[in-house]
Every structure is written in C-alpha cells, then in structure tokens.
Amino acid sequence: MKIGTWIFAAMGISLAVTLVLELAWAWLWKIRERRELLLVAAANLLTNPAVVACYYLAAELVLSDGRETEKWILWAVKGFLEISAAAAEAFCYQKCSRAIHRPWLFSISANLFSYWAGVCLQNII
Amino acid sequence: MKKIWKKAAAALTLGTALAVLALGAAVIPGPLRNFMNEPIGKMVSGLLSARADLIWEPEDPFYMEKSWEEDKRDEFVHLDRNYFVNQEQGYLYVVDDPENQNITDALENGTLVYISFTYLDGEGTDWGVIQYQRTSDGDVTPNYGNPGEDEPEVRTGWIRMEDVSLVYDSKAFMQEYAGELELASGQENVSLEKGEEVQCWTYPGSGSISGTIPNVDDKFHVDYLYTDQDGREWGHIVYYYGVRDVWVCLTDPAATNLPVHAGKTDELLPLKTPPEKLPATMAEALGKEGPASGLSIWLTVLGLVALSVGASGGIIWYFHLHKPRP
C-alpha cells in the first residue's frame, strides 16, 4: 500500500464517524452533561488519529509486497491498536469523569459499538 | 447495580447484532458464488452479463492482481477507446503500474494506443493501461494477444491520461451531435444487391470503414438515427454478430466512398525522440523526489496527530484538574 494524500481524507472521515458514534453511545448511556460529552469527544480525539495513522503506517510497511499471507499481521496490529485506544480512553474517563461510573465498561462497549457500526457502514456504502 | 448489568447486556446484544450484520455482508457472496456455479446459475449469470463476453482484458500484472486476486475490479473504469500520444515534451513515459511508477518505455507523440481500462491513483492521477508491441523497425502498434513466451515483444504498461488525446470515435460523435440524434423506430432495415455488403463506418463522415456485414437478417437493429449535411440517413449499431458501436449509411449501405467530414481532434504536438537512458521512475522524470513525497505526507500526518494529541490532552488535563468533587 503506497501512502498518498488520500490518508488525510481517511483520517478525517474516521474521526468524524467515530465521534458521532461514540457520542451517540454516550447519549444512550444517559451521559448527557456537556462537560462529559466534551470529555468523550476529547478522549476520542486523543486516540483516533493516532490509531489510524499507526494502522496505515503498519500497512505500508507490512504490505509493501502486496502478499495476502501478511494480512494477518495487520489484523493483529489493528487489534492491539484498538485495545490500546480503549484502555487510554477508559483511563481518561476514570481520572476526569464523574458521570461515567464504569469507565472501563463504557470505553470497551463504546469502542466495540463504533468499530462494528463502522464496519457495517463500510459494507453498506 | 442492576442498571449496569442491563446496560452491559444491551451493549453485548447490540454488538453481537452488528457483528452478525457485518459478517453477513461478507458471507452472503459465498453462497451466491456457489449458486452461480450451478448450471442454472451460469445461465442466469450469462443472461445478466451478455456484454461481459465483449470486454477484452489486458494481460497486465497490476490489473490482473487487483481484479482477480484482490477482487478490486471496481477500482478500474472500462474505457475501450483509442488515443494518440500527445505530450508537450514530445513523448510520454510508460510505467509498470500506477503505484510503483517505474518507467519501462517511452512513446513518441502520434503513437496510437488502445486504452481498455483506467485507474485513479491515490494522488488523483488517472492512468490508462495499454498493451502494445514494437515492430522490427521500432514502430508501436496496439496488441490484443497474450504477452508471454510466444510473443515476447508484446508489452503492457500504464500511461497518464493527461499525456494522450482522444481519437475521435463513435462515442465522441454521439456526444457532439446528441441534439441531432433521433431514436430509431426499430423498423429500419437495409437492402443489398447480390454481392454487396453493408459498410460499417466508425462514425458518419469519418471516411474510415471498420468492417462489413455480408448480409442482414431480422436481428439487424439500429438504436439511433442521424441525418448528415448531405441528407444521407445513418443508423448506429450497438451490437450485431460481433460488430459493435459502428454506423451504417441506411441511404446507401454498400457505398465505400462517402464524403468525409472528420470530427474535431486535438492538434498533434511536435514529437521528439525520447532520451536513450530513461529515468527510473515517473517522480524522477517529473522532477519530484519520490521518497520525499511520501516522507512529506508522513511528516504532515505526524504533525496532525501531534496537534490532536496536544489539543485533546490539554482539554483532558483541564478536566482532570477541575474534576467535580462528589
């Protein structure tokens, strides 16, 4: 995979979709104070661009030969990045939020929801 | 406590449902493919893709890998048109594929090429795939065979669409004269004397006969009609026994010397002889540093990530310092 200016659009779309989905999830969890929603948005702004950039960097390094057999490495990288992002967000909620009583459960469920909803959207589009 | 478990159960249920939907979208094509391998499936596939038999595909490694191995056929646009090389510098460079862009050849202005498919790369450059061969005296001609051991001189490559000009064809004619075309009634036909054949022209007034039809039957059908400036009526054939996208003069179908009113085409720019030592890559040819171009993008990405981490980190730190006490 060769890097190009398309990565900026990819990062922008990923961040926008993630913010919408995670804020919607927070709303479903009855987290509706402006401060708390801003914290959720900030936590995702902290992790999402870094995760996307790291993923595409790994893709460029791993898939330089374009071989199918190396794609499992990318899956492992993606898993590691998603887990790290969820952990970082949970840590932020634990330290900074008063309304999110189960920060780890919220973070894991929000990340699962935004990941799979994103996959569905991609398949539909 | 109960509320938390209810939320967890709801999250698990929704997550599972979404996972099933996503997997379903990936799995369904499998059974569909199995159906298509059954005799009835093949018949259905054949009816749906009658036109697929007419689409020639180049034996280009990049095209074949993307289309067949990676199943990314939709990244290519089927073009099926002829162009001539027309670059300001007098020649264009042919590369191995749009991603690596290693230069493999150079073609002078005026060289005729057939472009079957185009591909838009990550930078927004439109590339066309060509298959050609060089004759013993160095001339370049389009080729539709199979590059390999039998035809070692047949090559494939990719060229930038901005380096070529369209050879005026039926599609260009129909776009230019769209307002003067009429839908055919379906009753049009031609009558031939013994020994006569219907002449197939690339477009009305082209002066170029692309083939002939020895005799016509009740399957002869034109979709559009055009009356030229001399009063002759022409009919467009989409497909008829292997003949496709041609025009026949309904008024005088067997005539071979009809007046020429050639379509507008770009002026051919002066040709120059390419250098003997070709540049290694398109980036080098264009005066750009290839690796630095990728490096500059990564540096920009790093800067954006640093900015987002810094901004969000600042907000989170502020929230931490001002966390409301219970």
Task: Give your account of this protein's structure.
The complex is a heterodimer of chains A (125) and B (326). In chain A, 80% of the residues lie in helices and 0% in strands. Chain A has 125 residues and is mostly helical. Chain A has one domain. Chain A starts with 5 loop residues before the first helix and ends with a helix. In chain A, helix 1 crosses helix 4, helix 2 runs antiparallel to helix 3 and helix 3 crosses helix 4. Chain A is globular, with a radius of gyration of 15 Å. Chain B has 326 residues and is α+β, with helices and mostly antiparallel strands. Chain B folds into three domains: 47 residues; 113 residues, SH3 type barrels; 80 residues. Helix content of chain B is 30%, strand content 25%. Chain B has seven helices and 14 strands. In chain B, the strands form four sheets. In chain B, strands 1, 4, 5, 6, 7 and 8 form a six-stranded antiparallel β-sheet that branches. Chain B has a four-stranded antiparallel β-sheet with strand order 9-12-13-14, with no helix packed on it. A two-stranded antiparallel ribbon of chain B has the order 2-3. The longest helix of chain B has 32 residues. Classes of the chains: A mainly alpha (125), B alpha+beta (326). The interface between A and B is large, with 41 and 40 residues.
